[in-house]
Amino acid sequence: MAHLDIPGLLKDTKLGRTAIVSSFGAESVVLLHYVVSVLPDIPVLFLDTGKHFPETLAYRDEVADALGLNLQVATPDSSLLEKEDPYGVLYGRDPNACCTIRKTFPLQDAIAPFDSWISGRKRYQGASRAALPILERDGEKIKINPMASWLESDVRAYFARHDLPRHPLEANGYPSIGCAPCTQPVAAGDDQRAGRWAHMPDKTECGIHLGPDGRFVRSAQDRREGE
Ligand code: SF4
């Protein structure tokens, strides 16, 4: 791991108002436990798309209780949903539009009051993350990647050391967990994100990361990443 003083960085007042954005997926609890041990009251933003597995919502509540999280749930605009996705099946016809309504717009609103936000991305998660910095500019905000230099073995060790709860679907073959209609289990040895939008081979990203110009991006390079 890098020798940067990450706890000191997280407490740096230059970061202004900071929040964590968490999907409460398979590895999320590690970031949450790590950051909350430094910043106990930090807001934890969860995008409730209305399409999550019930197991994810139960796991979110379990983790929030266990860690005493300051959980804040963002939801899609109901009038927009009524207009654009009245039957709740837009994901099948136009998943990019569905992600925009259910993830991108709510995230924009949720992080608006903050100057910086924390992501759990790591360099080992793919070639396009190989040079992931600890700090990066994200439009007008700063994005902090405190686990950028962690190895997969570091994550496993952290789970064990702190006896953290596992997402219940992980044991059923879901190493990457998003919305239920767009997530399938994967075979042993497959890419961790092979089960995300498996019915849409040209889409593998959820679109919650901002580009340098402050706009939300869905680049081909980032499609293997997501939250
Ligand atoms: S992951 Fe699927 S269901 Fe969830 S917002 Fe995106 S397209 Fe819609």
TrEMBL record:
Q: How is the cofactor bound?
A: Binds 1 [4Fe-4S] cluster per subunit.
Where is the protein situated, by its record's location annotation? Cytoplasm
Domain Phosphoadenosine phosphosulphate reductase, residue spans? 19-185
Q: Which UniProt keywords apply?
A: Cytoplasm, Iron, Iron-sulfur, Metal-binding, Oxidoreductase
Q: Which family does it belong to?
A: Belongs to the PAPS reductase family. CysH subfamily.
A Pfam family assignment: PAPS_reduct
> What biological-process terms (Gene Ontology) are attached?
hydrogen sulfide biosynthetic process; sulfate assimilation, phosphoadenylyl sulfate reduction by phosphoadenylyl-sulfate reductase (thioredoxin)
Q: What is this protein called?
A: Adenosine 5'-phosphosulfate reductase
List the gene name.
cysH
Q: Which organism is it from?
A: Psychromarinibacter sediminicola
> Which coarse location class describes where this protein primarily resides?
cytoplasm
Any one GO molecular-function label of the UniProt entry? metal ion binding
